[in-house]
Design goal:
By secondary structure, the protein is α+β, with helices and mostly antiparallel strands. Helices cover 45% and strands 12% of the residues. A 4-stranded antiparallel sheet has the order 1-4-8-7, with no helix packed on it. It has a 3-stranded antiparallel sheet with strand order 2-3-9, with no helix packed on it. Strands 5-6 form a two-stranded antiparallel ribbon. Bound molecules: S-adenosylmethionine. GO terms for molecular function: protein-lysine N-methyltransferase activity.
Amino acid sequence: MEVYDELLRWAQDRGVELHGVAPRSIPGRGIGMVATKPLKANERILLVPTSALRTIDTVRPKLKAALPKGTKVHATLAADLALDKPTSKYWPWNAVVPSRESITASLPLAWPAAGDHSRLPPPPPLLTKYLPKPALALLHKQQSNFTRDWTAIQQASSLPTITRQEYLHFWLLTNTRTFYHETRRTAATLARDDRMVLQPVADLFNHADAGCEVAFGAASFTVTADRAYAEGEEVYICYGQHANDFLLVEYGFVLPPAQNRWDEVCLDDAVLPELSERFRGVLEAKGFLGGYVLDARTVCYRTQVALRLLAGVPVGEWERLVEEGEDGGKVLQGKVDGLLVRILNKYRGTVEGTIRELEGLEVGQPYQREVLCTRWQQIRTLIDQTIERLGP
Ligand SMILES: C[S@@+](CC[C@H](N)C(=O)[O-])C[C@H]1O[C@@H](n2cnc3c(N)ncnc32)[C@H](O)[C@@H]1O
């Protein structure tokens, strides 16, 4: 019997109801949920009663008592999972989650760490340095959250020893599988980003840029079909309106750009080097320094604003345009588009260089190099499409 059949039996004993969907292995996506019959739009396909959730209230009391006050729910749930033995009542659930190897391979927080710098020759460059800027910023935030949580766990000296690597695995597992859940009590006592619970079976849905509706109330979580599905089709939920850089760091994968309407490319490394100190100061004063992006259809307003300075609009006039939300007319727009095409052509060379470097690297695992290469190729494609769209 497949491990997920055992999980379904266990979950059904706890009141979980599935209608017309079942877990299946899906190449490249671990387990996913697949329609076992034709589904209609608005059909309820899953119900998970609140009593089946793993929450801060189901954590072993000994653990909660041992952790410092203020320890995050994420940190606590991860430690609770790490302490589970095969005799745990949650074992059929634990048995289906991704292995430590697959978590470590896919999630950048677990990618090769800094090597031994006393060695000669020096260690190869870390793979994470090849993450695009928004992904790297997110990774740094994760690193600091993980350090905070691991510090808290180490203070719980009365607990069985967990190594940092073990804890990292469960911390990432928790990060990729929790759902937002608000009750009157959690709303009053926890920060928004800490109102997190784990739910069985629902955590087997993979992500798409649009998917089934996930809702919760006092009694249950429900998942409802957003459209009709054919038998055998994978049924997705949407984890949020995320660009691929976010998906890579938080979930360890990227979607093909044509399947991710929320994808965008950061242009800071293309635009910021073009700006003089003076222009940077002017932009900063108005809150327009950095955060430049483009997507498949548009170049963001912040980029448009910054490029108008570079296009030679006098600062006073530029301030007026910004304050009045004006674009300055067709001629100026043509000049800005031409400038952007020049900047993008230059940046394309940098992106090409990154792809070539990644192709020649041997550090890390093949999946890690491949996903980085794929991401930079996607960035190159989006840049090329914009050049094509704006070019003469
Ligand atoms: C909540 S779990 C979903 C179930 C998971 N596939 C499993 O095997 O348990 C989230 C993880 O599933 C994988 N995943 C989700 N959506 C995906 C997608 N569209 N493509 C590839 N992997 C995906 C990622 O590894 C992600 O971290």
